[in-house]
Design goal:
mainly alpha; 72% helix; one-carbon metabolism; membrane
Length: 272
């Protein structure tokens, strides 16, 4: 159980360090696998992005538990902006300095850049703005890192790789990068916003997070039609299955936590 929004540390069944490892390892493996095989690779890339989103969901929950929940969108959009910048800078610096043979460092640099910028922003918010949140530095860095891996994962699934040239052509030029900014922001910030309160539960929040992550994967599959091939169909099918299973788990968990469930009917046809 958590005191969701009580100004106390958020506790839960899943250890934050374990989720950090899942997000980083899963996210990086997914990105690297994006160019492995034309159909399976992009699916793995999206699943890696799902891992990164779950990491971000837990970090949002930790930092937002110190307030009323009104700061969730603020730190979400801010950290996602940092994540997008870090992701493109990380893979772009390899090409900018013509570091041939070091292309595999791109995703790692993206993660490092995003987390460092997130850490600096958190220090400013804490030391200058005066936000008295003990986990501010760690959580902001984690959310930014999760955002970078998630955006890069979904982007590489469409581009078929993580090189800056592929990403600029397949994701940035058509404007998909802006869509991923919004989608990943909502996927990371919505679960705690939807579940916060005195009866908020970490596992239930993560189940909601899984459903929003797979929902983003579904939209990625639709966007991947532009790349041709059959990867878009595989991404769409796996995303639909993942969303159905995770959302059903979230609904069941909500039923179990509720004192009672009543059907209120649909809205009236005529205003009363």
């Amino acid at each position: 159980m958590s005191a969701g929004g009580s100004g106390a540390p958020a506790e839960g069944a899943v250890n934050a360090n374990v989720m950090l490892a899942v997000g980083i390892i899963g996210g990086l493996i997914g990105i690297y696998a994006s160019s492995f095989e034309p159909t399976i690779g992009p699916v793995i890339a999206c699943l890696g992005a799902v891992c990164a989103i779950l990491w971000g969901v837990l970090a949002i929950r930790s930092v937002a538990s110190y307030g009323l929940g009104t700061g969730v969108p603020s730190i979400g959009y801010m950290s996602l902006g940092i994540g997008v910048i870090g992701a493109l800078a990380g893979v772009g610096i390899i090409a900018a300095f013509k570091l041939k043979g070091l292309e595999m460092l791109g995703p790692i640099l993206a993660l490092v850049f995003a987390m460092l910028i997130g850490l600096l922003v958190a220090i400013v918010a804490k030391k200058i703005v005066g936000m008295k949140i003990p986990v501010m530095e760690r959580c902001t860095a984690e959310i930014a890192g999760a955002a970078a891996l998630a955006v890069l994962g979904f982007s590489s699934a469409i581009a078929g790789g993580y090189s800056i040239d592929l990403l600029l052509t397949a994701v940035v030029a058509p404007g998909f990068i802006a869509l991923f900014y919004i989608l990943v922001t909502m996927a990371i910030q919505h679960p705690f916003n939807a579940c916060l309160g005195p009866n908020e539960d970490q596992v239930r929040t993560l189940k909601c997070g899984a459903s929003t992550a797979f929902l983003t994967m579904i939209i990625t599959g639709i966007l991947a039609i532009s790349a041709g091939g059959y990867a878009w169909f595989a991404i769409l099918v796996v995303g639909l299955i993942g969303w159905y299973v995770s959302f059903k788990m979230f609904v069941n968990a909500s039923y179990e936590a509720a004192a009672s469930v009543k059907w209120s009917g649909l809205w009236p046809k005529v205003e009363e």
